[in-house]
């Protein structure tokens, strides 16, 4: 075991840990709800500037590429139809994919949830006797917290995508699904490289500047030694082709190609919704994805591999099809449309809430519109984090317009808000008697049915204000009222009612 690996895997050299430090929020699990987290994120002035500059650049590049594609809407419609067909017949295409993959020498595994997926990856890595793996950028493995799991097992998971490397070396969390380090600027990247690279292998040159080519070269040299010694690689997949048993990864840096060719063993963790019916369908999505994601006509590297080839590339390949809540999403006639997502992040790049709040505020590896529609369905709406996510939206509809697979985000968001309201209503009924809601409604009818009744309540509130003093409303002795206040910031009760003000300033009511 190398010195730097021993420091990491044995956990006795704190600054060299791979996973995010506690002061940076740890993993996404257990994060505060959006309404609380966003207040902290909005105070990060440099991050907000970074986000605004980056998202504006990506939006403009995407708009240019779309404008030069005259059949753009036809391509969107074709992708919409293909993904809908996959959703209707997902069981059939998954079985076909398993059969095709197995025929090409790939070992296929099925994982019900994140824990099972992580165990499968960990068991394979331990069976190979390795102390490290190299990773291609994979949102699915971030969804399962695979890196953290492997570290607990004594296995270092090296991210090889440049933006993921920046995030990992910064003991940070991704804030975007395509550009994970979008919240960092080049000066911050330089500081991270100088401070951290030496803890994990080849150090960054001391005279490196914040010039992007120099930073990229420092990362290239740092990663090269890891590529050359790695025996196991972990990847995701943009698409799985059912008819040929092929996996597809599109990327811009070449690190994916290194991971797909050099190691002896390749493990690919894939969500069950990533399957496409045939190789011919790939043409549609290779036109949509790069234009929508990074504003490119084509990704520099498009890798398609179909199983094991003797003496060429990995000689042992594993594909793990993971559910982790996706079948629950599929069961919802409205919510299931989000499973068409191809992870291009075009919805994130146009979202005014995301641009100002940043990705960390969402408490999920999926931020922005895709996060607030997908995450609550994958994880359920029992957790406060997931309950507040559908409300992190202004319903402006910009995400609907740019989505290459025509996901109706705003319809799903309103649907999820209804589900949250229904769940909370059921919980409220446990806190009061069976007729509690009727009692509340009758009381409201009495108050609002006669202006004299309303005045009586206003005078009572004025008396309450004198007792409570000039403070905001805080915890109340009524549990139901406290739950209502959890989602609202309410100023103190005014000492003068509007009716009294009107009488004093505008004369008696007639």
TrEMBL record:
Record-linked Gene3D superfamilies: Alpha-helical ferredoxin, NagB/RpiA/CoA transferase-like
Residues in LUD domain copies: 94-320
Cited Pfam families: Fer4_8, LUD_dom
PROSITE patterns documented for this protein: 4FE4S_FER_1
Domain 4Fe-4S ferredoxin-type: 337-407
GO process annotations (BP): lactate metabolic process
Annotated keywords: 4Fe-4S, Electron transport, Iron, Iron-sulfur, Metal-binding, Repeat, Transport
Molecular function terms, GO-annotated: 4 iron, 4 sulfur cluster binding; metal ion binding
Domain of life: Bacteria
UniProt-listed InterPro entries: 4Fe4S_Fe-S-bd, 4Fe4S_Fe_S_CS, FTHF_cligase-like_sf, Helical_ferredxn, LUD_dom, LutB/LldF, NagB/RpiA_transferase-like
Signal sequence bounds: none
Protein name: Iron-sulfur cluster-binding protein
Organism per entry: Propionibacterium acidifaciens F0233
């Amino acid at each position: 075991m190398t010195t730097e690996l021993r420091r990491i895997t044995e956990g006795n050299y704190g600054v060299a840990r791979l996973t995010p430090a506690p002061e940076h929020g740890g993993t996404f699990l257990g994060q505060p709800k959006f309404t609380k987290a966003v207040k902290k994120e909005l105070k990060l002035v440099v991050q907000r500037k970074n986000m605004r500059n980056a998202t504006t650049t990506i939006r403009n590049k995407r708009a240019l590429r779309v404008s030069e594609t005259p059949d753009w809407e036809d391509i969107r419609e074709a992708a919409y139809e293909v993904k809908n067909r996959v959703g209707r017949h997902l069981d059939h295409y998954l079985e076909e994919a398993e059969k095709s993959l197995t025929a090409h020498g790939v070992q296929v595994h099925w994982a019900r949830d994140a824990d099972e997926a992580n165990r499968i990856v960990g068991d394979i890595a331990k069976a190979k006797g390795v102390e490290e793996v190299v990773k291609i950028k994979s949102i699915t493995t971030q969804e399962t917290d695979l890196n953290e799991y492997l570290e607990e097992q004594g296995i270092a998971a090296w991210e090889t995508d440049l933006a993921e490397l920046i995030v990992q070396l910064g003991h940070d969390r991704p804030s975007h699904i395509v550009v994970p380090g979008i919240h960092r600027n080049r000066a911050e990247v330089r500081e991270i490289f100088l401070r951290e690279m030496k803890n994990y292998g080849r150090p960054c040159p001391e005279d490196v500047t914040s010039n992007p080519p120099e930073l990229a070269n420092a990362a290239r040299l740092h990663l090269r030694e890891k590529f050359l010694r790695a025996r196991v690689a972990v990847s995701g997949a943009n698409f799985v082709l059912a008819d040929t048993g092929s996996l597809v990864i599109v990327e811009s840096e070449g690190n994916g190609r290194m991971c797909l060719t050099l190691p002896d063993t390749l493990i690919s963790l894939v969500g069950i919704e990533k399957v496409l019916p045939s190789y011919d369908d790939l043409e549609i999505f290779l036109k949509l994805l790069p234009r929508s994601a990074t504003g490119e006509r084509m990704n520099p590297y498009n890798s398609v591999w179909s199983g094991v080839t003797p003496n060429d590339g990995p000689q042992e390949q594993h594909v793990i099809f993971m559910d982790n809540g996706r079948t629950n999403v599929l069961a919802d006639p409205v919510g299931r449309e989000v499973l068409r997502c191809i992870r291009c992040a075009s919805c994130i790049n146009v979202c005014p809430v995301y641009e100002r709040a940043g990705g960390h505020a969402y408490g999920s590896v999926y931020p922005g519109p895709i996060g607030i529609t997908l995450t609550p369905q994958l994880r359920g709406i029992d957790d406060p984090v997931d309950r507040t996510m559908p409300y992190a939206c202004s319903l402006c509809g910009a995400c609907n317009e740019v989505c290459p697979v025509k996901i109706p985000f705003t319809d799903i968001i309103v649907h999820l808000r209804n589900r949250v309201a229904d769940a909370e209503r059921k919980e409220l009924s446990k806190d009061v008697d069976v007729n509690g809601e009727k009692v509340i409604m009758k009381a409201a009818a009495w108050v609002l049915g006669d202006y004299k009744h309303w005045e009586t309540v206003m005078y009572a509130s004025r008396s309450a204000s004198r007792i409570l003093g000039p403070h905001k409303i805080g915890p109340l002795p009524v549990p139901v009222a406290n739950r209502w206040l959890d989602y609202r910031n309410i100023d103190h009760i005014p000492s003068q009612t509007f009716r009294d003000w009107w009488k004093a300033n505008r004369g008696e009511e007639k």
